[in-house]
Design a protein that fits this description.
The chain has about 160 residues and is α+β, with helices and mostly antiparallel strands. It contains six helices and four strands; from the N terminus they run βαββααβααα. It has a four-stranded antiparallel β-sheet with strand order 2-3-1-4. Strand 2 and strand 3 form a beta hairpin. Helix 1 crosses helix 2 (about 70-90). It is globular.
């Protein structure tokens, strides 16, 4: 049996909006969770390029494998990312008690070879375009305390 290599390009510029247009992407930890959820779908053949968040929606470039229609791919992307958002951030269950994180609205547009640069610049400019400020709420390690803790632990054991 001969296998053929898929050489066609099915790059799309997708936009998903949160249910009720709540501003769920104002914290960096929420953005990181959603981005990681999208990248988990790479094992099914999806390929991602630029991803940009703007408070209540996300724009991203994705290459959809030929075995999935746009509608099926949209369902996979939305359901997988919503599941991860609810797992990592249980507080979203208060806002979305029925478990619907994404609205029914979506926008998709094919990206040709010439449109990649224009699409990428638009996606990367989402924060400025929508005047949104993202709060970096990720936990940081303080190296000065970590170095002091190891020094005091060695002094105690001596």
């Amino acid at each position: 049996m001969t296998t053929t290599i898929d050489k066609r390009s099915n790059w799309l510029d997708l936009m998903f909006v949160t249910k009720f247009r709540y501003n769920c992407f104002l914290k960096q930890s929420h953005i990181d969770t959603c981005t990681a959820a999208f990248h988990e779908l790479e094992r099914f053949g999806f390929k991602f390029r630029t991803i940009g968040f703007a408070g209540n929606h996300v724009h991203f470039q994705v290459d959809v494998p030929k075995k999935y229609s746009v509608q099926v791919a949209e369902g996979m992307l939305k359901s997988w990312s919503a599941r991860r958002m609810f797992e990592k951030h249980p507080g979203f269950r208060k806002r979305y008690p029925r478990g619907s994180f994404w609205s029914g609205y979506e926008y998709h547009e094919g990206i040709g070879r010439k449109d990649f640069a224009e699409s990428t610049s638009y996606i990367l400019d989402q924060e400025r375009h929508h005047n949104v400020h993202v709060i970096d709420d990720r936990q940081q390690k303080i190296t000065s305390f970590a170095a002091r803790d190891t020094a005091s632990a060695s002094a105690i054991s001596a």
